[in-house]
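Saturday, quiet lab. Running sequence design on the structure tokens for the scaffold JK sent over.
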């Protein structure tokens, strides 16, 4: 067991369950940093489009990715030092990232980078994604799986975009199928994850529930490190 990785709080779940909002809220309370691992896959998809690389050509994908500077700072995804946080949220990049995420070699490279990011911060991080508790940090002391019915998730996403409910529901359904059926690191709750159904809960209520679980497992906001002790390092 990786004792350092035990400090990580792993939050998994499909799109539209509130992972990012909850992760950031829990991280603030704990004095941790938060990491959206999905942003790395989206950034990779954006890179492949820029370099006109066929996402099915794993060798070409890895060649581009090997020399790419990807970083995540203060909630922003950077590619070669440029903030691409808005660009990677388009529908086309979302769809492309799900296809890329099926490539085992790409996942291996990005998981290494994500683990290095967390290690550089003393493993005091709330990490969100789709395979955090099962693959990226299987030794995390706190593992959460957020979920909600598809219609609830689609309504939430519709409120965040100008896309219609039907279009959002179709996009989420497609991504759910891709993520849950891929051969490598499919979306699934870890066996020891605590499942939280967010359909009838506010973000603050979910955050409070996660913090309660953290305290019960020895990760206590009262013991948070001094401000600035785990600031991002280049």
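Result came back. Writing it out in full:
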């Amino acid at each position: 067991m990786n004792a350092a990785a035990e400090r990580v709080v792993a939050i998994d779940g499909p799109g539209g369950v509130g992972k990012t909002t909850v992760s950031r809220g829990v991280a603030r309370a704990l004095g941790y940093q938060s990491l959206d691992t999905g942003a790395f896959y989206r950034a990779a998809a954006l890179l492949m489009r820029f370099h006109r690389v066929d996402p099915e050509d794993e060798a070409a994908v890895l060649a581009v990715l090997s020399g790419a500077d990807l970083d995540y700072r203060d909630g922003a995804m950077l590619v070669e030092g440029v903030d691409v946080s808005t660009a990677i949220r388009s529908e086309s990049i979302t769809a492309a990232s799900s296809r890329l995420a099926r490539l085992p070699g790409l996942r291996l490279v990005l998981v290494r980078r994500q683990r290095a990011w967390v290690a550089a911060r003393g493993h005091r991080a709330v990490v969100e994604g789709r395979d955090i508790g099962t693959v990226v940090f299987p030794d995390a002391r706190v593992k959460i799986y957020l979920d909600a019915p598809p219609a609830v998730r689609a309504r939430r996403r519709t409120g965040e975009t100008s896309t219609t409910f039907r279009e959002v529901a179709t996009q989420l359904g497609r991504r759910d199928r891709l993520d849950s059926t891929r051969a490598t690191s499919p979306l699934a709750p870890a066996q020891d994850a605590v499942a939280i159904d967010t359909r009838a809960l506010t973000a603050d209520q979910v955050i409070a529930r996660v913090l309660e679980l953290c305290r019960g497992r020895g990760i206590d906001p009262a013991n948070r490190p001094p401000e600035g002790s785990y600031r991002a390092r280049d």
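Notes for JK: The first helix runs from residue 19 to 30. The two ends are 28 Å apart (CA to CA). Ask whether to fix the surface positions before the next round.
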